[in-house]
Design brief:
single chain, alpha+beta, Rossmann fold, Immunoglobulin-like, five-stranded mixed sheet, five-stranded antiparallel sheet, 15 strands
Length: 743
């Protein structure tokens, strides 16, 4: 089963090409209309940050006044991924279009390159055939493809390559051959694996705020296996690598601004990472010195030393109040015990209750989903071979740790992809060899091959099905972008920018924006990238240091207009975005504005401080389509409202006289909305009606695409009809407009 070198190389090149093709599927839809539509989520903010660095190289956008408005926020992401994207974009021109071109092709390229270290890791433990099998599985694994697909410029695509490289280097550093070479006079070759581990680790730390998971699993696995084996030289090399990573982090942290979450934050690169690295380095050095000075007589002695050292390291780290307090929120994040993560789709568990919940994992891992708990056993089965015992044990701990995380949250499928592919390929190899010489071996091997094919069927079927989908048809007004929820949101972001006043902060972070926008947090990054507006809440959730995130997130569910206006004023939010995302509480702001346009309905008064400015795009797909939520027929994907004082129409009338004001509104798409306000005259002989729309002039009167009144206000006082002109200034200043003149 060991292929020749040239044939293995050719096979790996073919697998890498297939990996690129699978991840590049749909590139024409993503770039429909000559504009790259980024997926809804963090990719849009990575594009914003990369654009800034490309235009101000090598500076980083460390503080953004458009995030967590009106406070602004320090950005929790480390710099390496930004430099990678921005550097490539700068070479292509440095503008937004260049960033989009990089976003289109870089993730598939990184996913394809990651097949090489996956091959190397598996080949070290099982030969080239196992390496090719692992690389092929990684290439087709949907759980990894979704993080490195065309247009998805989120940092996870870079983490995937670095993580796979770390795995390959860790297995090489744990192999007996590395120890033997390291002891030789020409030890440069033996030093390469630990250097590779150090470089990959440092790369992950400078790319992903969640890198503590790698330290807890990957570095702990390396220490455990090397310590149990009594490998003093390898432990010393690992300690040096940890110390080097700690030094880099210690230099980087002060230059990145205050970490979000405090100086010991677990959600941004902070002193917690430097301290964890330093403690691990001391533990590795202590084990190396202990083993060199007094070699352990047997495995039991070395295990006791290892346990004592790791417990002492953990106690030392937790003895510091900063790390101890910071780790609690990190555990809550992994365990989904905080509100925001519970609503985040990628933080859902892999398996959920119900038949659909047990079939859904097929879309992420194929049949491999049901074998995730068994992957450590596959690695341990390979560990029976003394020649690869230590690296196989390292792999077992990787699959156990990242497997547990992937079962708890879908997002960790990106981290599990490489070790799972290696362990699965080794498991098939071990099973195939175990059947040799058995009775009816041919039949048993045929059954094994059939099982593997059946388990892998979703891995092949899903990409083929996507490839055969017709190209997105021109929807709505002929725009192909409207065929997807992401494209629809992208188009609405352009509308938002066109119909709202320009404001500062996007190009110059030293300039405070004049106003902000309140929107559902899960569309925040996309609106900031496409509309260049400040938002109070976005996809960062509570991890951008905002004092107001929870109340901004709850804004859509307020049932009192007075409370909604007060909150909008407190957050300096001039505009409000509502979205069609399925069921809404009928009395909530989301329903009253998005479904009712703020008009009165049975038992519910009208909302008089929110005026519809724009809506659409017509024919687009709403946000609800992403999660399969039911939506009303002809539902409008998004609406934009402006918070205004409203003009007061004052009509003289005898007390108790009914007074009704009406105006007919028309949207840019041609939808006509009859707006009505009614009251009874008060005891002072006047009826007062607060109205949010001018008539007959359009809103702000300076932009296409806005809602406009088709005539003046018509005010009926008893049986007499009056026409009243309400100006834009009247609405924005809260002025009183008297009813007078003839009928």
């Amino acid at each position: 089963m060991r292929g020749r070198g040239p044939s293995a190389a050719a096979g790996l090149v073919a697998i890498a090409a297939a990996a690129f093709a699978l991840r590049a599927q749909g590139w024409d839809a993503v770039s429909a209309g000559g504009h790259v539509v980024l997926p809804i989520g963090d990719a849009a903010y990575h594009a914003r940050r990369a654009l800034w660095t490309a235009q101000h190289w090598p500076s980083l956008l460390l503080f953004d006044p458009l995030v967590a408005f009106p406070d602004g926020s320090w950005i929790p992401w480390p710099p390496l991924h930004t430099w990678l994207v921005a550097g490539l974009a700068r070479a292509l021109g440095g503008d937004a279009a260049a960033v989009e071109r990089v976003a289109l092709w870089l993730p598939p390229l990184l996913g394809a390159l990651a097949t090489a270290p996956v091959f190397a890791a598996a080949a070290r433990l099982g030969g080239r055939a196992a390496g090719l099998g692992a690389a092929a599985l990684f290439a087709a694994l949907p759980a990894q493809i979704q993080y490195s697909g065309a247009g998805n410029i989120d940092h996870h695509c870079t983490v995937a390559l670095l993580g796979a490289t770390w795995l390959a280097a860790a297995l090489a550093a744990a192999s007996p051959a590395a120890a033997a070479t390291g002891a030789a006079a020409a030890g440069i070759r033996g030093a390469l694996p630990p250097i590779g581990v150090a470089l990959a680790r440092t790369g992950v730390l400078l790319t992903w705020p969640g890198s503590l998971a790698y330290l807890a699993i990957a570095d702990a696995a390396q220490l455990a296996v090397l310590g149990l084996a009594g490998r003093s030289r390898s432990l010393a090399a690992h300690a040096l690598g940890l110390a080097a990573s700690a030094a880099v982090v210690a230099v980087a942290v002060p230059r990145l601004g205050p970490p979000v979450g405090g100086p010991w934050s677990a959600i941004a690169l902070s002193w917690l990472h430097a301290a964890a690295l330093a403690v691990l380095a001391l533990a590795a050095a202590a084990l190396a010195a202990w083993e060199r000075g007094r070699p352990g007589a047997d495995a039991r002695t070395r295990a006791a030393r290892l346990a004592a050292t790791l417990l002492a390291a953990a106690a030392a780290l937790l003895a510091l109040p900063g790390p101890r307090e910071a780790l609690l929120p990190a555990l809550a994040f992994v365990g989904q015990r905080e509100p925001w993560s519970a609503l985040n789709a990628e933080q859902r568990p892999l398996f959920r209750s119900g038949a659909q919940g047990w079939l859904a994992p097929l879309a992420h891992y194929g049949g491999l989903a049901y074998a995730i708990p068994l992957l450590p056993l596959a690695a341990l089965a390979r560990a029976r071979d003394r020649r690869v015992r230590e690296p196989a044990r390292v792999l077992a701990l990787w699959t156990a740790g990242f497997g547990a995380l992937a079962l708890a949250q879908l997002r960790y499928g990106n981290e599990l992809a490489a070790p799972a592919s290696v362990a699965a390929a080794l498991g098939v190899r071990e099973a195939w060899r175990a059947l040799a010489g058995r009775p009816r071996a041919a039949l048993a091997r045929a059954a094994l091959a059939a099982w593997v094919a059946l388990a892998a069927l979703p891995l092949v079927a899903l990409p083929i099905a996507r490839a055969r989908l017709p190209a997105p048809a021109a929807a709505g007004d002929g725009d192909p972008r409207l065929a997807t929820p992401a494209g629809t949101l992208d188009r609405f972001a352009e509308t938002l920018r066109a119909v709202t006043p320009e404001t500062g902060g996007f190009d110059d972070p030293a300039t405070a924006p004049a106003y902000g926008v309140l929107a559902p947090p899960n569309v925040g990054h996309a609106l900031r990238w496409g509309a260049q507006r400040a938002l109070a809440a976005d996809n960062f959730g509570p991890y951008a240091g905002s004092r107001h995130f929870q109340e901004a997130r709850a804004f859509s569910w307020l049932e009192s207009e007075a409370e909604a206006v007060a909150l909008a004023e407190r957050l300096r939010a001039r505009f409000v975005v509502t979205a069609e995302y399925g069921a809404m509480p009928p009395r909530s702001l989301a329903a009253r504005l998005h479904r009712d346009d703020g008009r009165a309905r049975a038992g519910e008064p009208r909302w008089e401080h929110f005026r519809l400015v724009a809506e659409g795009p017509a024919g687009g797909r709403p946000l609800a389509d992403l999660v399969g939520a039911p939506t009303p027929a002809g539902a409008i994907p998004y609406k934009l409202f402006e918070v205004v004082p409203g003009a007061v129409i004052e009509a003289p009338a005898a007390p108790g006289t009914p007074v009704v004001a009406r105006v007919l509104l028309e949207t840019a798409g041609g939808r006509r909305i009859p707006y009505r306000a009614a009251t009874l005259a008060a005891d002072d002989g006047f009826a007062r009606l607060r109205v949010p729309y001018p008539g007959p002039e359009p809103l702000a009167s300076d932009g296409a695409g806005k809602v406009r009144a088709l005539g003046p206000w018509r005010v009926r006082i008893g049986g007499v009809l009056h026409e009243v002109a309400v100006g834009e200034h009247d609405v924005l200043s809260g002025a009183t407009v008297a009813v007078g003149g003839g009928s």
